[in-house]
Design a protein that fits this description.
Helices cover 75% and strands 0% of the residues. It is built from 6 helices and no strands. It starts with a helix and ends in a 13-residue tail after the last helix.
């Protein structure tokens, strides 16, 4: 299996993972974030498929990080949704690991690229996956923070969300 085929399969697996998680979260705002990540993974697979088939492709700037920040602006609603699904922290940690593996793999492919077009494609995918990592990392923070942080409302100091 060549590197493009491997990367395509990895992106399609990521898309399926996020779709399944979105279905599990269909009744809360996390579904929106997960569907957005699934859409991005599908777009990455299409880019790689076009590259493999020597078809033209365009590297568009993603709005995923900005969209996720808008969704995260309602922290209270997200935390309430999260508390209803306590085992989700493990799911997001797995997603974090998957994004980290993608970043590592694309960095390796970029370093091994023999032409500037291929190198540019993998550098683009690295940035995309780093954005995904940041989004999921924020989810992990929100979930773990709501489970781990206990203090007296009268005496404690609180950090801003």
């Amino acid at each position: 299996m060549d590197i493009l085929e491997f990367a395509i399969n990895m992106e399609l697996e990521g898309e399926n993972y996020y779709i399944k998680q979105a279905e599990l979260n269909k009744d809360n705002s996390l579904s929106t974030v997960l569907l957005m990540l699934a859409k991005e993974e599908k777009m990455h697979a299409k880019l790689l498929q076009n590259k493999a088939a020597k078809l033209p492709y365009e590297l568009k700037q993603s709005e995923a990080l900005a969209e996720a920040k808008n969704i995260f602006s309602d922290v209270g609603a997200i935390q309430n949704s999260i508390k209803q699904i306590p085992d989700q922290l493990d799911v997001y940690r797995v997603a974090l690991e998957n994004e980290e593996k993608s970043i590592t793999l694309y960095k390796k492919f970029s370093a091994e690229a023999t032409d500037s077009e291929t190198k540019t494609l993998f550098e683009y995918l690295i940035k995309q996956e780093e954005d995904h990592y940041a989004i999921i990392n924020q989810l992990v923070f929100l979930i773990s923070h709501s489970e781990e942080w206990v203090e007296s409302a009268e005496f404690g100091t609180r950090e801003e969300y």
